[in-house]
Amino acid sequence: MPNINDIFFDGHYKEIWKTIIPDELTVKEVDFMIPYFSLQPGSKVLDLMCGYGRHAIGLARKGVTVTAVDNLADYINEIQQTATTENLPVKAVQSGVLDFSTEEQFDLVICMGNSLNFFNAADTVSILKKAASFLKPGGYLLINSWSLAEIVFKNSVTKSWSEINGVKFLTDAKLLFHPARLEAESTIIHPDGTTETKTGIDYIFSINEMENMLQSAGFVLKEVYSIPGRKKFTLGEQRAYLVAQKQ
User: Fold this and answer.
1) Are residues 52 and 107 in the same domain?
2) Alpha helix locations (H) across 66-120?
3) How far apart are CA 244 and CA 142, in angstroms?
4) Structural domain containing residue 234
């Protein structure tokens, strides 16, 4: 299952991104976060690798104070413009996740849209340790992934094609090991006939490996859902939501 983040990790592909991850899903994810993590006006959330800010803006519209971090200037500028226009409690920061630092303490850190799987094991542990340092004691971490071993090994497709808004995508993916990863090369054919190629790697970790990395960073894995807050994850489902708590 090729990582659509790798294919669309570019501000020019936002509308295609929104076709693949519809607004309805974001609404459901935000509506899960508010009661599950007891968020209320004044609560503080850190959105790492926030993309175009679908969760940051959604949470801020409910009065939650959000710091949104991404390395792409187009995304950060758009988030800041929306926050200014709507007078929302959002601070947008352009930074790579491995370089980001803050003295603030948060109630919840979120890492959504499979973005954590861009990183190998060593960098993943570094990010998790950073997340723990940004949280208040007892604070929570929410990770969304569709590249867990329990998902990929049952659902991976080596070749696929699709057409979205007149743009064609031909993807050739290879499942490799040592380390376990999915390497994808996508050819993008635009309506005018021009083409471009994008490549990406998703590193694949099992739930057990994720739990060990979380523990090494000072977290306890509390639950894994396929539908957040409603259905516990089972083998082969399409996406997972990992809830961990700082100890």
Assistant:
1) yes
2) 73-86
3) 7
4) 4-146+205-246
